[in-house]
Write a structure and sequence with these properties.
Layout (H helix, E strand, L loop, with lengths): L22 H15 L1 E7 L19 H7 L7 E7 L7 E7 L4 H7 L7 H7 L4 E3 L3 H9 L8 E5 L13 H12 L3 E3 L1 H9 L3 H24 L6 H14 L4 E2 L4 E4 L20 E6 L1 E3 L2 E2 L2 E6 L6 H19 L7 H15 L40 E4 L2 E4 L4 E4 L2 E5 L4 E3 L8 H18 L1
Parallel strand pairs: 1-5, 3-4, 5-6
Antiparallel strand pairs: 1-2, 2-3, 7-10, 8-9, 9-12, 10-11, 13-16, 14-15, 16-17
The structure holds manganese (II) ion.
The site of manganese (II) ion has 5 residues, from loops.
């Protein structure tokens, strides 16, 4: 009998705003991983589908970052296995994908899935796609040879909450492979982190779009903000613009913190009624094709900064610019942070009393950005072209209900850097101008 539901290409993001990751990119990433590992077997677990009873819907499914990076597939209960044969390059090893068998009755509920077969091979550029049922029998052959101290590296999603509905759970499937490795087991995470630190052209294109969607949404929020609205109304403006722009979800919970909440770093309740004179910190990021932006703007809800707010704002902005100006290959996150802190120290005047405002800059300046908002990789790594980082100084004066954070996403290039999120107004005068024009547009349609 022919399966009634066809078109499992959804499994590779076909039809999504971002589209599938090009097969040649996936192939290059997998080759780079095996070259890096050198010898042994790598296993990458997919994410599992979520339990019915966990306030989750099917659309909550998000693939594991490492699995998506290497395979571009959104299937659950799958395992990717690579065998590194030493030497590196395209001939440095081989790959297999283990997928659950299709279950036509279940697909009436969940939509078509990708099963073992020719279609999965075409979508991923791998010639060996097998049923997960075969993994136990393959385990001894995969791990039988070689005397490496680490024969098996395991990565991808940590097993949790597997329902078994879409197929056997990955931790159960992995049992025979772990046994065959006889204790010579390590984590794949450090190798994946090194690869993911430097973004390829497809990743940069996705991050660029995520940045463009996010800055467009922030511009809308600037034009819409008014005293007497709730924080969640601004959240709605922002997230509606994300979806219209093609974002599949937020990269992290949207932060809209006004007045006293502007000094709470990860405030995301967004319940407060915004009042005249408040500053509003909006720290937001659209996720486009599995890559997220992370941008913060701090605006005066009444449309104009008070002189006091403006003084702190310009201090933070100057620190941010000084750090951004120093982003180039060979620099480091530590150096950038020192530059921002020194700027605040030397430009505080008496704004924060006898001491400088630097003591109110209570978090780090930067983090890596990519599939994860706090993306993988050691923070000590010197900058190289293709790395993407945030630059986000802040000063938080809780006693005055006055918090300012300004954050942009910066790509390291061969000659310096490119700010991916410069389209959202940033200088105080630009923010005020955008807010004024939003108000006059609203007045015009009333
Ligand atoms: Mn950030």
């Amino acid at each position: 009998m022919r399966c009634p539901v066809v078109a499992p290409r959804v499994a590779a993001q076909a039809g999504s705003p971002a589209g599938p990751v090009p097969v040649e990119r996936l192939t290059a990433r997998r080759a780079a991983l095996l070259a890096r590992v050198g010898h042994g077997v790598v296993v990458v677990r997919s994410a599992e589908s979520r339990p019915d009873d966990a306030h989750a819907q099917d659309s909550d499914f998000r693939q594991d970052d490492d699995f998506f990076y290497l395979r571009g597939l959104e299937e659950s209960s799958a395992l990717l296995v690579g065998v590194a044969a030493g030497g590196g390059g395209a001939s440095g090893g081989s790959w297999r994908l283990y997928l659950p068998e299709r279950m036509p009755a279940r697909e009436q509920w969940t939509g078509a899935r990708l099963g073992p077969g020719a279609e999965a091979m075409a979508l991923t550029g791998i010639g060996d796609v097998r049923s997960v049922q075969r993994l136990a029998g393959d385990a001894a052959g995969l791990l039988g040879s070689g005397g490496d101290s680490t024969a098996l590296r395991v990565g991808g999603a940590a097993p949790r909450g597997c329902t078994g509905r879409e197929g056997p759970c990955t931790d159960a499937l992995l049992g025979p492979v772990l046994a065959a490795a006889r204790g010579r087991i390590g984590s794949l995470d450090p190798d994946m982190a090194q690869l993911r630190l430097v973004k390829d052209v497809d990743e940069i294109a996705r991050l660029r779009r995520a940045g463009a969607i996010t800055t467009a949404a922030l511009s809308e929020a600037l034009a819409a903000a008014e005293p007497g609205e709730h924080e969640y109304e601004l959240e709605a403006v922002i997230e509606a613009a994300f979806r219209r722009g093609g974002a599949e979800r937020v990269g992290f919970p949207t932060i809209v913190g006004s007045g006293p909440n502007s000094t709470v770093l990860h405030y995301d309740r967004n319940r407060r009624l915004m009042q005249a004179g408040d500053l509003v910190v909006m720290d937001v990021g659209a996720e486009f094709g599995y890559y997220t932006a992370d941008v913060t703007r701090t605006i005066p809800v009444s449309g104009e900064y008070t002189p006091r707010q403006r003084a702190i704002y310009d201090l933070v902005l100057g620190a941010q610019q000084a750090a951004i100006d120093s982003v180039r290959p060979g620099s480091s996150l530590m150096q950038l942070e020192n530059i921002a802190r020194r700027y605040i120290e030397t430009h505080s005047g008496s704004s924060c009393g006898p001491e400088s405002c630097e003591r109110y800059f209570i978090h780090g300046l930067s983090h890596w950005l990519g599939m994860d908002v706090h993306d993988v990789g050691p923070y000590t790594t010197p900058l190289r072209p293709g790395m993407v980082l945030t630059v986000e100084p802040g000063v938080y004066l809780a006693g005055e209900a006055l918090g300012v954070r300004i954050e942009d996403d910066v790509l390291v290039t061969a000659t310096g850097h490119e700010v991916l999120t410069s389209d959202a107004p940033r200088a105080a005068a630009e923010v005020e101008k955008e807010m004024r024009s939003g108000r006059s547009r609203r007045a015009g349609v009333k």
